[in-house]
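check this:
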Amino acid sequence: MFENYPSKLLEEAVSRFSKLPGIGKKGALRMVLHLLKEDVNTVRDFSLAITKLREHITYCKHCHNITDTELCNICSNPKRDYSIVCVVEDLRDVMAIENTSQYNGLYHVLGGIISPMEGIGPNQLNITSLVDKANSGEIAEVVMALSTTMEGDTTIFYISKKINSSHVKISTLARGVAIGGDLEFADELTLGRSIVNRVPYEFSTSAQIR
């Protein structure tokens, strides 16, 4: 549709933006044209922010959350409950749960979920370090806060088998979160109630159907 660009620079910029998730050529062109209307310094600051993000951001050595320092602000907070670990897929789920103000423990970011269709196996996720935490004797409960999809339930089942012998309580979110839904799209009230009313994994729907 947009093949006859009046500028090679414009074409290259549109091509770069269109590679972002959910951004097609039409949306990319709209973004690029917007940037062209902005002040040069504003665009330069935008570019610098993206470059700094890619070059300097790191991952928390304890929970694998995105951070600017060695430990994220959650793991380094002495007011958090260190005996509870909430297992999530990525940063978006951490932010969603934090917005509920109903959880005060720590997190463990897997970096994805097991998905054979996408070629993602257990070895590609942060599962080994989670099992090590569970076996350390310092954790009383592991809350599985993964999306209520087949892939999410498969991941929960796999992890529960790995840490089942560690005598750690394993719980899952109450099914106030819709089956097949992603946590980031759940409203704060529903997600908050699901955290507060979490249930032991062996009594959850996903465990009973296996």
